[in-house]
Amino acid sequence: MSDPILSASLVARFAEIVGERHALVAEADIAPFVSERRGLFGGRTSLVLRPGSVEEVSRILALASETGTPVVPQGGNTGLVGGQTPDMSGGQVVLSLSRLDRIREVDVASNTMTVEAGVVLQRAQEAADAAGRLFPLSLASQGTAQIGGNLSSNAGGTGVLAYGNARELCLGVEVVLPTGEVFDDLRKLKKDNTGYDLKNLFVGAEGTLGIITAAVLKLFPKPKGREVAWIGLQSPEAALALFALASDRAGSGLTAFELCARIAVDFSVRHIPGIVAPLASEHPWLVLMEISSGRSAEDARALIEEVLAEGIEGELADNAVIAQNLSQADAFWAVREAMSEAQKPEGVSIKHDISVPVASIPDFIHEAGAAVLQAAPGARLVTFGHMGDGNLHYNISQPEGMEEQAFLARYREVNDIVHGVVRRFGGSISAEHGIGRMKRDELIATAPPVATDLMRRIKASFDPAGIMNPGKVI
Amino acid sequence: MSDPILSASLVARFAEIVGERHALVAEADIAPFVSERRGLFGGRTSLVLRPGSVEEVSRILALASETGTPVVPQGGNTGLVGGQTPDMSGGQVVLSLSRLDRIREVDVASNTMTVEAGVVLQRAQEAADAAGRLFPLSLASQGTAQIGGNLSSNAGGTGVLAYGNARELCLGVEVVLPTGEVFDDLRKLKKDNTGYDLKNLFVGAEGTLGIITAAVLKLFPKPKGREVAWIGLQSPEAALALFALASDRAGSGLTAFELCARIAVDFSVRHIPGIVAPLASEHPWLVLMEISSGRSAEDARALIEEVLAEGIEGELADNAVIAQNLSQADAFWAVREAMSEAQKPEGVSIKHDISVPVASIPDFIHEAGAAVLQAAPGARLVTFGHMGDGNLHYNISQPEGMEEQAFLARYREVNDIVHGVVRRFGGSISAEHGIGRMKRDELIATAPPVATDLMRRIKASFDPAGIMNPGKVI
């Protein structure tokens, strides 16, 4: 390792703010903060700061501004696009929000909860549940991911269909600006038209404009009934028709509609212990559908049975099975949640997090599939995702028997093919994971210059010294 | 009138873009564009441009930028805060979006509609209806207000409780920037995390950052049943408890919950022809509640009956009457919709468009009422509004027999009293009408400097020449 870029005196000044104990300088202590779990976006630093209060965050950023020191905010370090780790320069300080983990308030009457950035998502869900409410943001990484990161990346997940993404679940934010000033906008208001929408700029900015230190989150009534079914069908077109039917019958009671290619289910069953095939019969496509009712368990049951009966009668669905109890419902969801993990034993994969208009999902699947297979014969299209949101995790496992590196060498080429199809449908190359480091160059290369120019102007006006998470987003 | 600030040659250059016919210069033609219907925020200009295409809007703004000519975008001219009219200088060109009135597409399968800025809201509703869908934005001025203005002011109205405000109903925008560049972000995506949220900056910016020329709007399934009831009750506290009960039972099927002081209902009945008292009995407070069902008319009926029965049994409500048919439902709504108009024959009023957390509505009503009556004894508190959104039109009619000017002289003082109480509850002084000219000074004086500073930075970076609707918002 070369000499650290951060001088000893600067490290000492930062450490003084949080106290020695919370300024990590030993390589072993730093290690968990400079890589992420897939090992894709590693970096270096000689300082990780773990402030314990908003005031400490403020003092850190004021010092960073004064000294021109870049700061990388980090939550649960579960991001998938490298937004939360430092670069290889060694000159970026990591600021972990983990110690800002207070649930400041649960306001049952206003259906809001005010939490700090470092609160783990699952803890926020549990606090809402204990108050008789639902906080519907739900992700595979919820046991580790933190609210600050969820908001900074505008997280999606499986609850978006009925409740919206992280942006829509947030009423107000508290943000420390690059200067150290605190922007306190922790409002519980459903309506507020006093000037520009600053909240939505910080949400989704991946820590490049300031650091979200707390937020007011929306709570919802807990559903009184929830029913989950796996459904076998012949095509994405049938799934789209079934989605339209279910939306019509259940309205906002349709709380999940996940489309999965058969191979995605097969991988889960084959590789993940305890995962059981949801349907005895074989179908090229499967849908995991969840219907909830605010009225009663019986109501949810009657509604899902009605949708499935109509779907089968209308020849949209071949077959379906409804979970008979809570543990079976969890087992049904486990099949879906295991899909990402289950691709690993099948070799390397080239991944995409795309969205298109919901009605274009079938055409996208056909066009992208044909284009990928022409370029990479034998590649396995492990298509699954949140069809109701128009969002697919369009993941492509390597052909069987191919050298891993040979397939990975084509990552960019396959990305370009898939993203080209996405663009033809007016879609997004980052539906829910963000831009981070991974997609920054592609965003700049392919977004309309007028859009990236506006983003650069915002960045320059909010963070003129360029200390906030440089190298990410824009 | 003094010599026009806009030179003849400049007027000619602008006129050449839209054609003589659509460049209004005669005083009589200009008159409707320089005042608004209440006559509060008049101004002057010697040129109103009515472009017929996005390209013409682009050329106008390019010329405006080149020549430093301020431009005031205008839709249906129904705004309530003076955001859409020019100042008294005579040097601001009015740009009317009325001719950009194409409904470009209704995409039933994706539940979206792409419309131009000049489409009148009611026409957008009707186009959605004709396609078997609901566009839920609903305002008293919907027969005149245009989509561009609705989005620029982030309009609220009666559909917010279940469907959100204009911001939440908009998936994508097309915007002409001050330079004339076109930012085309007309996406139909529910999820898109590619960089900063530019859409939500333009929505609600009241034309100060650019001109929205088209938008992608969300559509929803049409409810299959809709039931409306007037309910008599004793207090705002009882209304809050009833709201909690109705939310719990009906969830997103609770599509309106409007709280009205008895005097507001009395004014409507007294002054507006055809308005009939909704309840025979007398109650200090009334609620207009609407429950919709995506399933059936019977379902909506059963649900509203259940809520009312429980509310009356639990002594939250004294009495209630459900509309027996569509025309009675319309008549029920008419009582509510007439309230603003019905204040006029009672003399002048001092108005507020405020929001507080829903749970704080009762305390707000008591505290604000006490403070206002102490300062202005005999003032009549004509409180009504969207309680379910925490949003009240807190309008105060003058004491009976008082000189109008004597009451109006106290406008600012009473505003300050009410807004002071709003701030104590963490509320907003502009819940749904925006800032415009009316509340600009107050926003700047009372918002945290860190917030107004960020807004100024955005304004300066998007519109460095300051040509976009100057004097509004910030």
Automatic annotation (TrEMBL), chains A, B:
This is Hydroxyacid dehydrogenase. The keyword Flavoprotein applies. It comes from the Bacteria. Keywords: FAD, Flavoprotein. One of its GO terms (biological process) is respiratory electron transport chain. Belongs to the FAD-binding oxidoreductase/transferase type 4 family. InterPro entries: FAD-bd_oxidored_4_C, FAD-bd_PCMH, FAD-bd_PCMH-like_sf, FAD-bd_PCMH_sub1, FAD-bd_PCMH_sub2, FAD-linked_Oxase-like_C, FAD-oxidored/transferase_4, Oxid_FAD_bind_N. GO terms for molecular function: catalytic activity; FAD binding. Its cofactor is FAD. Residues 41-222 form the FAD-binding PCMH-type domain.
